[in-house]
Amino acid sequence: MNYQYRFGNSFASATKTLYQDGGLRRYYQGIGAALVQGPVSRFGDTAANAGILALLQSNSYLKDLPSPIKTIFASLCAAAFRMILTPVDTLKTTLQVQGAGGTAVLRQRIKMHGVGSLWWGAFATAAARSWGIILGLLP
């Protein structure tokens, strides 16, 4: 899907191109990063929600905050945790789109723009995710 999004190909065209680029293994570029990112980000979401709600409940001044305010705090902490994982997502997406040469693309990007370039888009992603949770649009 990331390959299709980047290059604007149809499913059939993308599938054919990816297969020609490396056989069945090409479909699984980025799987290592995905296997780290998925569970760790879910853990972070759960820990942030449960942890922040417990922390707020244990504070005599904050325990009486309205539930929507508590949800906003928890959502912001979950978003911050996901921002920490942005380089893993960057690696995963780059490998999915560029294939085996993706690591070279990232090395060049870091050389040109610095290590901070691995976090490009982190604030926008966190904001979109946080507002989706707050508004009840995302789990």
Automatic annotation (TrEMBL):
Name of the molecule in the record: Uncharacterized protein
Keyword Transmembrane: yes
GO cellular component, one term: membrane
Transmembrane parts of this sequence: 117-138
Pfam families associated with the record: Mito_carr
Lipid bilayer topology: Multi-pass membrane protein
Record keywords, A-Z: Membrane, Mitochondrion, Mitochondrion inner membrane, Transmembrane, Transmembrane helix
Matches recorded under Gene3D superfamilies: Mitochondrial carrier domain
Domain of life, source organism: Eukaryota
Subcellular localization: Membrane
Main location: membrane
